[in-house]
Amino acid sequence: MPLEAGLLEILACPACHAPLREQDEELLCEGPECGLAYPVRDGIPVLLVDEARRPA
Ligand SMILES: [Zn+2]
Questions:
Q1: Which residue did the predictor score with more confidence, 45 or 9?
Q2: Cα-to-centroid distance, 20 and ligand 1 (Å)
Q3: Which residues surround ligand 1, an ion (CB under 5 A)?
Q4: 35 — alpha (psi -120 to 50), left (phi > 0) or beta?
Q5: Rounded Cα gap, residues 45 and 56, in angstroms
Q6: How far is ligand 1, taken at its centre, from the CA of residue 1, in Å?
Q7: 26-49: pLDDT as tens digits
Q8: From ligand 1's centre to the CA of 2, what distance in Å?
């Protein structure tokens, strides 16, 4: 399910405030030292550090 247009532009990583980009069913942080992946559930980004997947 694609995110609403324009939504990505106002979202930022809650951990480092870097922009996010959509990839598959996740939002990836573009912060070079962060890189957390946040899940999107039913089209709603879950921007919680506790819910994020740590990069491998
Ligand atoms: Zn981040």
A1: 45
A2: 8
A3: 13, 15-16, 18, 29, 31, 34
A4: left
A5: 21
A6: 23
A7: 999 999 999 999 999 998 899 999
A8: 21
Question: Concatenated DSSP letters for the chain?
Answer: -PPPTTHHHH-B-TTT--BEEEETTEEEE--TTT--EEEEETTEE---GGGPBPP-
Structure tokens of 12?
A: 């930022």
Torsion-angle region of residue 10: left (phi > 0), alpha (psi -120 to 50) or beta?
alpha
In this predicted structure, what is the pLDDT of residue 1? Answer: 61
- Average pLDDT estimate for 14-36: 95
pTM: 0.84
Q: How far is the CA of 25 from the centre of ligand 1 (A)?
A: 17
